[in-house]
Amino acid sequence: MSNKKTFESKIIAALQSEGFDVWSKKFHYTYLNKYKFNPKTVFDIGVCRGTPELYKTFPDSKIVHLDPLEETQVYY
């Protein structure tokens, strides 16, 4: 396993141990919308496939994209 994957695994494990669910399936509109909050700003860190769901779920929010990878620019 690469250092990046090991690091990601440790971060995911730490977040899960605190009760957070960090899996991409949770970026679905119906999951996000059930919380019924309307943030003024959403930070999309690690831009990827979940980005369209953020626009759909938070249409009135400002969405700030943070990702250093050029190939992810197609998502925003």
Give the key terms.
76 residues, alpha+beta, two-stranded parallel sheet, 3 helices, 36% helix, globular
Query: What general form does the structure show?
Result: globular
The secondary-structure class comes to alpha+beta
Which ranges are low-confidence, i.e. pLDDT below 50, for 5 or more consecutive residues?
Answer: none
Terminal residue distance? 30 Å
Summed over residues and divided by their number, the pLDDT gives a mean of 77
- The DSSP helix count reads 3
Tell me about the largest β-sheet.
2 strands, parallel
Number of domains: 1
Q: Tally of extended strands? A: 2
Strand content: 5-15%
Outline the fold blueprint.
Elements: H1 3-17, H2 29-33, E1 41-45, H3 51-57, E2 62-66
Parallel strand pairs: 1-2
Question: What would you note in describing this structure?
Answer:
- With 76 residues, the protein is of the alpha+beta class.
- The chain has one domain.
- It contains 3 helices and 2 strands.
- It has helices at 3-17, 29-33, 51-57, and strands at residues 41-45, 62-66.
- Strands 1-2 form a two-stranded parallel ribbon.
- The longest helix has 15 residues, at 3-17.
- The chain starts with a helix and ends in a 10-residue tail after the last strand.
- The model has no long low-confidence stretch (mean pLDDT 77).
Short description:
The chain has 76 residues and is of the alpha+beta class. The protein has helices spanning 3-17, 29-33, 51-57; strands spanning 41-45, 62-66. The radius of gyration is 14 Å and the shape is globular.
